[in-house]
Amino acid sequence: MLDLTKIGKNLKEKIAEVSETGDSHNTGRIIYSGDGIVRISGLSGVKYNELLNVKGGYRALALNLEEDSVGAVLFSGEDKVRFGDYVYATGSTAEMKVGEELLGRIVNPLGEPLDGLGEIHSEKTRPVEFPAPAIMDRGKVNKPLQTGILAIDSMIPIGRGQRELIIGDRQTGKTAIAVDTILNQKEENVICIYVSIGQKASSLSKTVNVLRDGGAMKYTCIICSTADDSAPMQYLAPYSGCALAEYFMYQGKDVLIVYDDLSKHAVAYRAMSLLLKRPAGREAYPGDVFYLHSRLLERAAKLSAEKGGGSITALPIVETLAGDISAYIPTNVISITDGQIYLESELFNSGVRPAVNVGLSVSRVGGSAQRKAVRRISGQLRINLAQYRELAIFMQFGSDLDAETQKILSRGAKLTNVLKQRRYLNYSVKEMIVLLLTVQSHVVDSVPEKKIGEYTEGLLDYFRINRADLMEKIDPDAEVTEELSKDILAAAEEYLNYSIGDNSQRSINDV
Ligand code: ATP
Ligand code: MG
């Protein structure tokens, strides 16, 4: 007769002896691989977002922790890993190399150099995912981030620690604004980080050359994932960039970070999520795509003085389709950021460059950080422009216009022209003040509309060379006095008489 109780007892004892070995805790084996996704059995002790080492020297990121397996995305080697290959948990979440050594370098989202300038000797790392600064640790945005672009600094000012979205269709000059802003930080003591996400290698190489030739690499780091990089690499890039930015921010420095662009980031994340079989929502994006960007952009902040007063200013870029800003990703990012610079293809194609639509662009916090003199002078600018645009529509009906209306129209047209700005031609604050004062005064009334661009360009040269004394007197942080503004306008008129008169052949040095 079988003694059932004895057998049961024996079995219980045997089972109790079986303990979970360290092996199944930290080691697993691949049971599925396809499209850059691997499913791993074992790895019972793995964390969310943990970096995994796959046999063959490849790396993966654990994203789905399920009851009987772990879903992970491969950074590389998706056609090399095989069924049954061993996978080892590293115990740490993804980390980015940080340090001053990264300035001037081009790296991938894991901090590995791509520029052939040798290894980066930095021992310091920071986790790629990190909580945003707490409310109590934040200070008020009170220092401007000068872009050097007149239309932006006067009407859509950006403060250090702000998040300002650059949004527009393809080829409307989005990257140009961000890159020109980086170039303008040469004397501003701002560290810049340019994160390229899923861009064409050719566009990226153009940007790199512009930054290099403009002497901006001294204070800039480029983190790049091109269109042919795996989706996980593209997904990781902005977080890596942010980790590097945080390293500098917590040292009390000011940082500018450009995410070019977050639409491609969302697309990369959608690809990963769908392959991981997460449920799809609106436009097939997963449910947490809002959180994807909000947790990234919340990390940009201005720290309080007790915390060192550092800041991260973020300029995320989002591409729209046919100007549709009510699509899913644009509305998400608009609601997260502190304002947007809206670029329009029609403006761009009609020669208004930068193609900023002033009516649809806002900056919700930058106003308080704007230089006092600029704020005062540009107060009227938006209203003047809006008035002009409204009248310009009526003008198309060809009705008779009184003198006052004609004046508004002609000044508006000239103002629009002055806001056009070539690339790499950044204005200093003082130059902006001279331009804004002149273009809103009676002085420009006698400049023919076609000559306004020529006039203002010459005017700045004239002020630089001949009226350095006046430039010296301008204090951007104080209101321009009545007297000084009179002097500036007198000088502008002086140059006008000379440049529009018969003497236009003479050099400005002769005046
Ligand atoms: P994409 O959608 O391809 O990323 P984008 O919106 O980033 O395009 P850019 O690449 O910045 O646009 O600019 C498109 C072209 O317009 C470039 O050749 C650039 O040199 C030109 N451009 C941009 N801004 C200006 C400007 N202010 N004046 C003259 N040309 C400009
Ligand atoms: Mg671009």
Short précis:
The protein is built from 17 helices and 16 strands. It has helices at 4-17, 22-26, 150-155, 174-183, 201-213, 231-249, 262-275, 289-297, 328-336, 345-349, 372-378, 381-395, 403-419, 429-439, 452-465, 468-473, 482-500; strands at residues 27-34, 37-42, 50-54, 58-65, 70-74, 86-93, 95-97, 106-107, 125-127, 165-168, 190-199, 220-226, 254-260, 311-319, 339-343, 362-363. Strands 8-12-11-13-14-10-15-16 form an 8-stranded mixed sheet, sandwiched between helices. It has a 6-stranded antiparallel barrel with strand order 1-2-5-4-3-6. Strands 7-9 form a two-stranded antiparallel ribbon.
Described by the principal axes of the CA atoms, the overall outline is elongated
Ligands in the model, by name, code or SMILES, are: adenosine-5'-triphosphate, magnesium ion
CATH topology tier name of the largest domain:
Rossmann fold
Radius of gyration in whole Å, from Cα? 29 Å
What class, by secondary structure content? alpha/beta
Quaternary structure of the protein = single chain
CATH architecture of the largest domain: 3-Layer(aba) Sandwich
